[in-house]
Specification:
Catalyzes the cyclization of GTP to (8S)-3',8-cyclo-7,8-dihydroguanosine 5'-triphosphate. This is GTP 3',8-cyclase. Its EC number is 4.1.99.22. There is one protein chain. This protein has a domain at 21-170 and 266-342: TIM Barrel (Alpha-Beta Barrel). 33% of the residues lie in helices and 17% in strands. The chain contains twelve helices and twelve strands. The protein has a twelve-stranded mixed beta sheet with strand order 7-8-9-6-5-4-3-2-1-10-11-12. The longest helix has 14 residues, at 303-316. The structure holds S-adenosylmethionine and iron/sulfur cluster (SF4) (2 copies). The site of one iron/sulfur cluster has 12 residues, from loops.
Amino acid sequence: MIELESQENKVVDSLGRPLRDLRISVTDKCNFRCTYCMPAELFGPDYEFLPKEKLLSFEEITRLVQIFSRLGVEKIRLTGGEPLMRKNLDSLVGMIKQVEGIDDIAMTTNGSLLSEKVNALKQAGLKRVTVSLDSLDVGRFGQLNGRGYQVEDILHGIEVAAAAGLDVKVNMVVQRGINDQDILPMAKYFFEKGHTLRFIEFMDVGNSNGWKLDQVLPSRSILEKIHEEMPLEPVEPNYYGEVASRYRYKGTDKEIGFISSVTQAFCSTCTRARISAEGHLYLCLFASGGVDLRTPLREGKTDEEMLEMIRKIWEKREDRYSEIRLSNTTGLDRKKVEMSHIGG
Ligand code: SAM
Ligand code: SF4
Ligand code: SF4
């Protein structure tokens, strides 16, 4: 009976896409100042981050997860800002783990605080971690992260996470002329270490990174570059809506992935909703605005009322920004939410 009820609650949007993944930004703060995400000139010492009372509490986040899970969400990804800047994140993971219907809790992090925090997170129920790393070159990495953080510390965090039993992936955002020389060293290093590396095309998210199409190195070029030295073969997708195109190094079971948000849009299977740190719901990475869920939560709306509200929002969803960008690269210069706000 309960099973039947939960099936009935599953929701699809106006383009037939189910709601399956929820990305929750747990903080808008970050210890890095990546040039393409939170450039130091714009996120300086006077920048006002959200005060604590505006952030969703762990109880509020868990309540939303319960509601979203009834609508079909099975996977949760914690992100930020830098999620590990939020105190006691392992408690939140433990709370989410208890929610019926959630079978996967993952986190995207810059990795700088991973080694000291990952064991508690794993014990609490975290399954997977994606570490963002754009270069193995000490100087370039320090420059890209805007704060001189050391590659070595991130690599150490990755190994501690893997040793703790987490599934670890590494994401590299490639910008033409900035870090494309790091593609092969990164591929070789993570092949040796046995961690899947995924290349992400530089996207026009937010308004602060001065994005231009010619800064995008298409996945196809990256793939060809690697294939010349380390032959690859395609791997079938694991599930509906998988964003990375997967390849295997021939003759091995080691994989590599490509997230081609610019050159091969995957909007038609996009099942992801996003909640910002202050509790706004975004239906697309490139949305201009979100819907405030925190106010109705705090005003005492019931779970049923919240569920109906979210259902109606998802049912109307028609976002497919990357597909539109592909067919028309002009006329897309609208104001967009910042990546550090909703977490990628
Ligand atoms: N701080 C965490 C981190 O860096 O992993 C989580 C939040 S960060 C906004 C999530 C991901 O978005 C990172 O992998 C980052 O590299 C990626 N990202 C940020 N701006 C981007 C852009 N313009 N194009 C592509 N990826 C971007
Ligand atoms: Fe921070 Fe992640 Fe944005 Fe870099 S990409 S500034 S680590 S939130
Ligand atoms: Fe999903 Fe929007 Fe990205 Fe398309 S552009 S894949 S709809 S987040």
